[in-house]
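Researcher: Here's my situation. A collaborator sent me these components and asked whether they could plausibly form a single complex. I don't have experimental data yet, so a predicted model of the whole assembly would be a useful starting point for our discussion.
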Amino acid sequence: MSETTETIFSKIIRREIPADIVYEDELAIAFKDVHPQAPVHILVIPKQPIKSLVDITSGDRDLMSHLLLTAQQVAINAGLNNGYRLVINTGNDGGQTVSHIHLHILGGRQMTWPPG
Ligand code: AMP
């Protein structure tokens, strides 16, 4: 995982590279994953470039709540009435590849457990 806070997601927020944006407000943005792992695969990210779940503090409580509620609304808007999976890959062992915290919304098929 890269140590810089400037990532491809910062470029998406600034509209410097294209993305299929499905939701945006002052704190968060949601866009379709470019390599979908399910029929619906959307990423919800804060505009603030927090690297990972490891880096959040109690001061991020409201922001993290906002991201969860945003994910809930984005999932509803995507028609995921039968459920979905929310994933936050964290650090190297967690499989995180982009150093800007993000919530994966995966849905539209039956998820399996355990994940790989
Ligand atoms: P993670 O492996 O949890 O860090 O997830 C990073 C995700 O970002 C992967 O699922 C990638 O497919 C996705 N991704 C990388 N670049 C882009 C991009 N330009 N637009 C949309 N999704 C992207």
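Model: Some features of this prediction you could bring to your collaborator: The chain has one domain: 8-107. Residues 8, 19, 31, 33-35, 43, 89, 95-98 surround adenosine monophosphate (CB under 6 Å).
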